[in-house]
């Protein structure tokens, strides 16, 4: 009986050792297959940057850009050089990951410039094609004696866009980015009650955490309000000008 138990333990030990060796071999093969040359990885990021700039579907890199690049290189140079392009990872998930990495890096660089520096914020609500409410926030700050303005963030607003919810979105982002309300010297919003209310609006909530902040109304919204009360003669002129500008912008070749 003891000999039978001993033989069983030895068989189990041999079995587990054999499987351990197989797992290590498979892991080394996977690691080798997953390794990508540094220049191929850099090329992947550059292609992802182009795809993001053109606002094209991410799958276009694998379905169109890579085959077209291989065809051009094989025609102009040779097939051996063209085969090297196959090492460039351009799958849908890879392009998505590259765009995300670049966007996070740009965001971190922007936050580093704003951190411990005076800045002002401009907020506005917008609705996209899916009828989702978005809070768009721009930041203005000084960078090497130059006044710069950039997009800080764009967040989805679920349900009602109340002043408390808008403030929580901004406050949460500033805390995650390690930005201080004390460095905020100005805010700019439209004249809506949720934004500009002195008692319960976003303006009042921000002044509670940053008492010295100065509020201004967005000039674009002022122009929109003024345009509603224009005379008929001026309204006809503005309508003609807007139609002309839109025609030129949609047909740049005819400009």
TrEMBL record:
SUPFAM superfamilies: Ribonuclease H-like. InterPro entries: RNaseH-like_sf. This is Zinc finger MYM-type protein 6. The lineage of its organism: Eukaryota, Metazoa, Chordata, Craniata, Vertebrata.
């Amino acid at each position: 009986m003891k000999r039978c138990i001993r033989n069983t333990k030895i068989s189990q030990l041999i079995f587990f050792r054999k499987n351990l060796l197989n797992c290590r071999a498979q892991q080394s093969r996977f690691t080798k297959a997953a390794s990508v040359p540094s220049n191929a990885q850099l090329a992947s990021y550059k292609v992802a940057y182009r795809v993001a700039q053109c606002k094209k579907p991410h799958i276009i890199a694998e379905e169109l850009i890579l085959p077209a690049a291989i065809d051009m290189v094989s025609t102009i140079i040779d097939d051996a050089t063209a085969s090297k392009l196959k090492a460039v990872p351009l799958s849908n998930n890879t392009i998505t990951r590259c765009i995300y990495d670049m966007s996070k890096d740009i965001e971190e660089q922007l936050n580093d410039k704003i951190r411990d520096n005076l800045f002002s914020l401009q907020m506005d609500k917008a609705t996209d094609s899916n009828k989702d409410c978005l809070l768009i926030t721009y930041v203005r700050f000084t960078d090497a004696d130059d006044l710069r303005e950039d997009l800080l963030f764009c967040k989805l607003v679920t349900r009602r866009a109340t002043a408390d919810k808008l403030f929580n979105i901004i406050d949460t982002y500033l805390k995650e980015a390690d930005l201080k309300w004390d460095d905020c010297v100005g805010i700019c919003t439209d004249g809506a009650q949720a934004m500009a209310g002195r008692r319960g609006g976003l303006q009042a909530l921000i002044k509670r955490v940053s008492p010295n902040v100065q509020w201004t109304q967005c000039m674009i919204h002022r122009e929109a309000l003024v345009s509603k009360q224009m005379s008929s003669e001026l309204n006809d002129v503005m309508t003609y000008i807007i139609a002309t500008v839109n025609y030129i912008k949609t047909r740049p070749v005819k400009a």
